[in-house]
Design goal:
Blueprint (H helix, E strand, L loop, with lengths): L23 E8 L2 E7 L13 E7 L6 E8 L13 E10 L4 E9 L9 E7 L7 E6 L9 E5 L5 E7 L4 E6 L12 E3 L5 E9 L2 E8 L9 E5 L7 E4 L2 E2 L10 E7 L7 E7 L9 E10 L2 E5 L31
Parallel strand pairs: 17-21
Antiparallel strand pairs: 1-2, 2-3, 3-4, 5-6, 6-7, 7-8, 9-10, 10-11, 11-12, 13-14, 14-15, 15-16, 18-19, 19-20, 20-21
Bound molecules: beta-D-galactopyranose.
The site of beta-D-galactopyranose has 10 residues, from strand 5 and strand 13.
Length: 331
């Protein structure tokens, strides 16, 4: 298993108990000096991709060491529940709502035994970032299909759902209601007919940046980047921002989030999943630094890196540098 720190993209990443982190298709929240990592908790063997357990959550104050905080949202044992064990719960994202003081989780939900045909979003809330989250409801946002999705909270507190709709052809940008429990009923079509998913948004240099993937299921494909002055567009295509070995397939991974490093303006981490659909629990995480230049950005492969690659104030150097014989390569 990989040594922590620094970051070793594509290698097994132990939590503070020495157990591989199990939080796939992840989303992150930073609050009161702590980072929270929410993700799909996968199980061993075939069938491990569906929600057998729920959404996991880990916490960290340095981005290197992650403590398992348990299951934030548990699947239900009630066959009448839409989040019954065996449903599909993917790409959980959590925001803190300053008006209600609730942590609000959104996720992609597919109903048990119905493949990917339901194309719904689910919402859950908690008064604590580590849960337990209580399932509120699920629906098709604005009455439209919704599969891979992300949330983006802007500087003014307004939040948005960016979701793959129209049978995976076009993304919808939809502002969330003030309590973040619903959308407001209007959406803007973005990246029309580009068939993108795995969307992530970040803001730097006064621009909104987008990274997503094409739609090839669990198999990797070239990443797709874009820049805009407004979330609603127009978006200018930037092509595939990845550089280095296997860049044409996004290093064998699929985008899930762009994580801003707290206290380091301009420092963003690209977070992606190397999926292992036959044994989903063995999926790996690819974290790489994003290099922003004006209105464009790039992501270069590195076998090992730490937060000091970012310009600006220095971050405490990695302290625990343990070599482990169990370290495995993803390549
Ligand atoms: C991918 C999607 C994943 C998962 C998978 C199922 O395209 O990004 O989140 O839904 O398909 O095949």
């Amino acid at each position: 298993m990989q040594a922590v720190p620094p970051f070793h993209p594509g290698e097994l990443w132990p939590d503070t108990d020495g157990v591989a982190i199990n939080a796939h298709g992840g989303g992150f929240l930073y609050r009161d000096g702590m980072y929270y990592w929410y993700g799909e908790f996968k199980t061993e063997g075939p069938g491990g991709n569906v929600a057998n357990v729920g959404v996991s959550v880990y916490s960290s104050n340095d981005l290197y060491h992650w403590k398992n905080e348990g299951i934030a949202l548990k699947v239900s044992d009630d066959p009448a529940s839409d989040i019954v064990k065996g449903s599909v719960i993917e790409r959980p994202k959590v925001l803190f709502n300053a008006k209600t003081h609730l942590y609000v989780m959104w996720f992609h939900l597919e109903l048990k035994g119905k493949g990917y045909s339901a194309a719904r979003a689910g919402v859950a809330t908690s008064s604590s970032p580590t849960g337990p989250f209580k399932f509120v409801r699920d629906f098709r946002p604005d009455g439209e299909m919704s599969r891979d999705m992300t949330l983006y909270q802007d500087d003014d507190g307004k939040a948005y759902l960016i979701t793959t709709s129209e049978n995976n052809q076009t993304q919808h940008l939809s502002e969330l209601a003030p309590d973040y429990l619903d959308t407001t009923g209007h959406y803007t079509r973005i990246f029309e007919h580009k068939a993108l998913e795995g969307a992530a948004i970040f803001k730097a240099n006064g621009h909104y940046f987008y990274i997503g993937s094409h739609t090839t299921g669990w198999a990797p494909n070239p990443a797709y980047a874009a820049v805009a002055d407004s979330l609603a567009g127009p978006w200018k295509e930037l092509g595939n921002p990845c550089l280095g070995p296997n860049a044409e397939l996004t290093f064998g991974a699929q985008s899930t989030y762009v994580l801003p490093v707290a206290g380091k303006p301009g420092a963003f981490i690209f977070v992606a999943d190397q999926w292992r659909p036959k044994n989903a629990i063995d999926g790996r995480y690819v974290w790489l630094p994003i290099k922003i230049s004006g209105d464009t950005f790039s992501i270069t492969w590195s076998d090992a890196w730490d937060l000091n690659v970012f310009p600006g104030a220095s971050v405490a150097a990695p302290s625990t540098r343990t070599k482990s014989s169990k370290r495995r390569s993803a390549k």
